[in-house]
Amino acid sequence: MNEIFNLRSQAPPAPSRSSHRRDTPAVRLAENSADYLSDSELLSLILHRSRSCSCTLDSARSVLDSYGSLSAVAAADLRELQKTDGLGPANAAALHGAFAKQ
């Protein structure tokens, strides 16, 4: 009887890294298309550096809130992007470069 109780009281196993990675924007983009991602998820792919996925999603949402739309972000010049809260110089340059030849 104690064995059954011990089995039931154990915490479930932690999700594997592979199952967590399948839910990232990068993996969903690779497996599907950009149509399966929100604008903030697309921006987070550009902003992704050494920060966590949730942190880049928060930054991307903040940028979208500031500009109102992805097309407005794409139309912004580098100086405007550099003044945007949540973007450092490297991410401002990455966004500007990503949209420069649009």
Q: What would you note in describing this structure?
A:
By secondary structure, this protein is mainly α. The chain has a single domain, classed as DNA polymerase, domain 1 (Orthogonal Bundle). Helix content is 65%, strand content 0%. It contains 8 helices and no strands. The chain has helices at 2-9, 17-21, 25-31, 39-47, 53-67, 70-75, 78-82, 89-99. Helix 4 (39-47) crosses helix 5 (53-67). The longest helix has 15 residues, at 53-67. The relative contact order is 0.10. Residues 1-19 have low confidence and may be disordered.
Entry keywords:
single chain, 102 residues, mainly alpha, DNA polymerase, domain 1, 8 helices, 65% helix
Task: Report a brief summary of the structure.
This protein has 102 residues and is mainly α. It has helices at 2-9, 17-21, 25-31, 39-47, 53-67, 70-75, 78-82, 89-99.
Helix content: 55-70%
Shape: globular
The description of the largest β-sheet is: none
**Percentage of β-strand residues:** under 5%
Please give the domain count.
1
